[in-house]
Amino acid sequence: MNKASRLFWPTLVTPKNAVVKQTEQLSRSQKLLTELGLVKPGSNGTYQIMPIAQRAIDKCIQLVQSNMQAAGGQKISLPVLTPAQLWKKTGRLEGDISEFYMLRDRSGKQFLMSPTHEEAVTAMLASTAPISYRQLPLRLYQIGPKFRDELKSRFGLMRAKEFLMKDMYSFDVSAEEAAQSYATVTAAYERFFRQLEVPFVQVEAATGMMGGSQSHEYHFISPVGEDTLLQCSNCSYAGNVEVFGSDTDAPSACPKCQSSQLSRVRGVEVAHTFLLGDKYSKPLGATFLNTTGKPETLIMGCFGIGITRVVAAALEVLSTEQELRWPKLLAPYDVCVIGPKAGSKEQAPAERIEHELLQLTQICGAEQLLHDERKELTIGKRLLDAKRLGHPLTIVVGAKATQAEAPKLELHTSGGEKQELDVAQVLQLVDSHERHKQQLLEGTEQTDTKRSQRVGHVH
Ligand SMILES: [Zn+2]
């Protein structure tokens, strides 16, 4: 069980009337994360993640992993340093590399602190003895830090110089098979975003410096979003204005159905997928042996999810100015229990109820409970912390817990009203919260069936 008194939780205390120098543009979520001591700014554009926020990020990693495994993914880890030589071979070193961290080792050899790993993973396959068509499709993914020398870091974790990404690379025998991999992985992406219960949209996107023939982005809709998206309410079309070059070149009628019911919204990009073809495999010589034993070039796709950005952007969309709100599957804890204040006249009897209540760990697991036993603090102070942290369920063992007739606990749900309930009713609500989480997780299997049906339609 997690005890609040032991938690490393460096809350930011700003003295009243202090003049705070705004060094970066703060978003709502970043302001709360910083004030609550969940994230600390490091050097310009980098962040130190404190234990409570780390729990949410770890849960996001787990959820992404289960979906990647369900889509046939196999996890690997590639070095952060990629030899610049590989980027020379694919021609990407000639492009705009001002956003990349380049460095030299003591022998003068140049490396990139990888912003992405197409070259590295393709060179790895090229250096492997030719693989057989029987081993394909191959879908390899990793989760690790990525680097980008942002000119304007802002909105905290949403646009940082170092961020956590899941990147998957698919290898297939043909363009048709690569399209099948693309359909399978993008279906897993949709499942993941549905599990988060944050409104999202998949849009047609520009391929940019990544290249390839087809590309989609996944966006959370938010006013702080840096992208302008077109959405047609007459058909299913949605696209990033970047596809048309710029906002001013974007059409006023739907490019698909010509309807004029085309609206503009702002989006935060949280994931990006590409059908790459042979853009990387050809120059780097990544081949497989076909059915007649002849080498052929592998056909690739790549699929990114910004893990830290998903967490920050979900908070941005769901939270209020005063309180964080988490996707249920990412909340650092499911339940917070606040016990009586030391020295209060109801302390002893209330502690007996508190003890009885803590059996709720049998329902949600001890790991998902935060016990706020900082008895030197008033209940009101601790409840304020709990509400700002946005625990899905907060249970207060206060004065009414000790009344002889029908003792009551206070239950606060994130974003909901206060309820007065007895212990059994509280346990029931914890149970239904856990069931809901389970249903969201099991969505993995349910939507998996849907996916194979849909893929069946395409081919
Ligand atoms: Zn349309």
What is this structure's SSE topology?
Layout: E1 2-3, H1 28-35, E2 39-41, E3 47-49, H2 51-70, E4 74-75, E5 81-83, H3 84-89, E6 101-104, E7 110-113, H4 118-126, E8 131-132, E9 138-147, E10 162-172, H5 175-196, E11 200-204, E12 214-221, E13 227-232, E14 238-240, E15 262-277, H6 281-284, E16 287-289, E17 295-297, E18 299-306, H7 307-318, E19 335-338, H8 347-357, H9 361-364, E20 369-372, H10 379-389, E21 393-396, E22 409-413, E23 418-421, H11 423-458
Parallel strand pairs: 1-20, 4-9, 8-16, 19-20, 19-21
Antiparallel strand pairs: 2-3, 5-7, 6-7, 9-10, 10-18, 11-12, 12-15, 13-14, 13-15, 15-18, 16-17, 21-22, 22-23
Helix pairs in contact: 2-5, 2-7, 2-11, 5-11
Bound molecules: zinc ion.
Mean pLDDT: 90
The CATH architecture of the largest domain can be named as 2-Layer Sandwich
Sheet with the most strands, sense and barrel status: 9 strands, mixed
Total of DSSP H or I helical runs spanning 4+ residues: 11
Q: Give the oligomeric state of the chains in this entry, treating copies of one chain as homo and distinct chains as hetero.
A: single chain
Beta-strand portion reads 25-35%
Number of discrete domains: 2
List ligands, each type once. Answer: zinc ion
Helix content percent band: 25-40%
What's the count of strands? 23
Q: What is the C-alpha radius of gyration, as a whole number of Å?
A: 25 Å
Category by helix and strand content? alpha+beta
CATH superfamily of the largest domain: Bira Bifunctional Protein, Domain 2
The parts where pLDDT drops under 50 for at least 5 residues are 445-459
Shape: elongated
CATH topology of the largest domain: BirA Bifunctional Protein, domain 2
Report the CATH C-level class of the largest domain. Answer: Alpha Beta
Distance between the termini: 50 Å
